[in-house]
Amino acid sequence: KVYLGWHDEVKKLMEEELLKPPPPPRLLDGHEIMEHFKLNPGPEIGRLLEIVGEAQWDKTIKTKEEARKLVEENLGS
């Protein structure tokens, strides 16, 4: 393998990053989770948002209702 040099490596990584599809729009945001489930702000909200985001990327969930159900299943776990 020919060493490209760090400039070429950075350029290659940037091009790969630009070719990735944009993230899907969030099905729920932190405020919606807090309001719907009567939760206070805190790290739990971030954890739940991460779970929902990963499920969206995996296409496990596609609707707001599925996202709420997933949050409910993961509350306090």
Mean pLDDT, nearest integer? 89
> DSSP helix count?
4
Overall geometry comes to elongated
SSE pattern: HHHH
Low-confidence stretches: none
Name the structural class.
mainly alpha
Q: Characterize the largest beta sheet: strand count, sense, and whether it forms a barrel.
A: none
User: What percent strand?
Assistant: under 5%
The end-to-end span amounts to: 47 Å
Helical content stands at 55-70%
The whole-angstrom Rg is 18 Å
- Strand element count: 0
What's the structural blueprint in terms of helices and strands?
Layout: H1 6-19, H2 30-37, H3 43-57, H4 64-74
Helix pairs in contact: 3-4
Explain this structure to me?
α3 crosses α4. It contains four helices and no strands. With 77 residues, it is an all-alpha fold.
List the defining traits of the structure above:
0% strand, 77 residues, mainly alpha, 62% helix, single chain
Give a brief description.
The chain is mostly helical. The chain has helices at residues 6-19, 30-37, 43-57, 64-74.
